[in-house]
Design brief:
Blueprint (H helix, E strand, L loop, with lengths): L4 E4 L5 H14 L3 E5 L5 H11 L7 E5 L4 H9 L4 E3 L5 H9 L3 E3 L1 E2 L2 H10 L4 E3 L2 H13 L8 E4 L7 H7 L3 E4 L10 H22 L1
Parallel strand pairs: 1-2, 1-9, 2-3, 3-4, 4-5, 6-7, 7-8, 8-9
Helix pairs in contact: 1-2, 1-8, 4-5, 6-7, 7-8
């Protein structure tokens, strides 16, 4: 099952990258980003991309991408996903020019439409807790049909159902999944709990 969850691995170190990714994939989370304010992020991305090069279901990329130059470095490392906290048309254009998936952050209708006009693959509602499910529901009324929106920050196992009913397509999950110092066993346990909650919320929605 392909779950619309992006694991946000902020603070991940290169030596942890492949073991952590393997645990997440085994639990059912196959898309992950290494924020560029992590230690040696391009090394981590490269290791993960090489480890899963033969698995088309696994998506590896970067988060907190702020410049076109960083987009190029992510692509060179083998990343295929670019996630940003903001809406920067230059970053989106550079991402799409390299054939990568573009997920810029937005919070207002203006930012959402600017991102879509620039070619964004999907949108990251950030910080999600400030808008809440009701905020997303209001935004959905004006977004083009089919626009993919992931809620990031404020979405988790306890409220997946509320977000899905409000129109969220998926989620970015950070500290609830990974924090520096977590053991592989703890990451596996947290991932299993999130996947179970996500699956239950999707089933209830259906």
């Amino acid at each position: 099952m392909s779950r619309k969850i992006i694991a946000i691995l902020r603070g991940l170190r290169p030596e942890e990258a492949v073991p952590c990714a393997e645990v997440l994939v085994k639990a059912g989370i196959s898309v992950m980003e290494v924020p560029l304010n992590s230690p040696q992020p391009f090394d981590s991305i490269s290791r993960m991309a090489k480890a899963f090069a033969g698995d088309p279901d696994v998506g590896i990329g970067a988060g907190t991408v702020l410049t076109p130059d960083e987009v190029g470095r992510v692509a060179a490392a083998g990343g295929r996903l670019i996630v940003s906290p903001n809406c920067d048309p230059e970053v989106i254009a550079a991402t799409r020019a390299l054939g990568l998936a573009s997920w810029p952050g937005f919070f207002t209708p203006t930012e959402a439409f600017t991102a879509l006009k620039a070619g964004a693959t999907g949108l990251k509602l950030f910080p999600g807790f400030m808008a809440g499910p009701e905020g997303l529901k209001a935004l959905r009324a004006v977004l083009p049909p089919g626009t993919q929106v992931y809620a990031v920050g404020g979405a988790g196992a306890e409220n997946f159902g509320l977000w899905l009913k409000a129109g969220a397509d998926g989620f970015g999950i950070g500290t609830a999944l990974y924090q520096p110092g977590f053991s592989l066993a703890e990451i596996a346990e947290r991932a299993a709990r999130l996947v179970a909650a996500y699956d239950a919320a999707q089933e209830a929605k259906a």
